[in-house]
Amino acid sequence: MKRDQRKYFLLFALIILTSSYFSKNASGTEYPGSFVEWTTTELILSQVYVPNNFKLVNVDIAIDDAYISQGDLTWCDIYLISPIGTYAYLFKYLTLDGSSFLNTKFDDSASNCITDGVPPYIGSYRPVDNFDIFNGEWSNGTWRMAIQPHYGALGNSGTISDWSLFLNEPSPIPNFQIGIFRDISGLWAIQDVTRVYFGSTGDEAVLRDYNGDGTKDIAVFRPSSGLWAIREVTRVYFGSSIDAPFPLDFDGDGSCDIGIFRESSGLWAIRGITRKYFGSSGDTPVKW
Ligand SMILES: [Ca+2]
Ligand SMILES: [Ca+2]
Ligand SMILES: [Ca+2]
């Protein structure tokens, strides 16, 4: 390759590498900002409207392409303003060098601050103010990126042709159903799942998956007789009125095993698996 060709090849490789690095590090939902251009020292506000509404847990900004007149990045402040007016500086004037940003991301979790970078600031950098100040606010509304050119710059002009806000919402809470067992009537009511009668007064609810089919089985332990009644699965006698039921998948085969803890002697008895002594009178069995 000729020298020029090699130069372009290396530049091309660098672009590929940085863009793949960048896309791997982008997180959250992207809200692209619009083209911004300025030619004076007036404050510029570039707006981006976020239609979704969620509680913020992470805010990042990407400026993929910006050019500011010769060397005038030094003479700019850029800050982000949330819909309710909270603001955080990406950087302040007299702290950066050069004229451009290229695939620059402002992210609190980056290891280097933007003021430690070199033009054109490729990669992820921490803003000078932490963006976590926005966390807990609602996302919906008009966000603004404020650009304040300062007097003293050579040209006081610039463009930001590609920038985006990235917002993360909290991870959804895993689905689970709540329910009750009313022993006086034997009612099981599991919200949005089922309503059945099984068991009677004095029974203890021991809802588990006893047959390993992935669905919990409605089940009771009757201390007066040591009965384990597992609906549509089995009925066995194991334990007595001095025992606390302690059903658990002790052997790890995916189905819950019938077991008891006898507090008076510290006996653990797991049906078909083991009997051992651990603990004594007054103790409560726990699962590690
Ligand atoms: Ca972040
Ligand atoms: Ca089951
Ligand atoms: Ca098991």
What can you see in these coordinates?
By secondary structure, this protein is mainly beta. It is elongated. The strands form 5 sheets. Strands 1, 2, 4, 7, 8 and 10 form a 6-stranded mixed beta sheet that branches. A 4-stranded antiparallel beta sheet has the order 3-9-5-6, with no helix packed on it. Strands 14-15-16-17 form a 4-stranded antiparallel beta sheet, with no helix packed on it. The protein has 2 domains: 144 residues, Sandwich (Jelly Rolls); 99 residues, no CATH class. The protein has 1 helix and 21 strands. A hairpin with a 4-residue loop joins strand 15 and strand 16. About 6% of the residues have low confidence. 8% of the residues lie in helices and 37% in strands. The longest helix has 23 residues. The chain binds calcium ion (CA) (3 copies). One calcium ion binds next to strand 4.
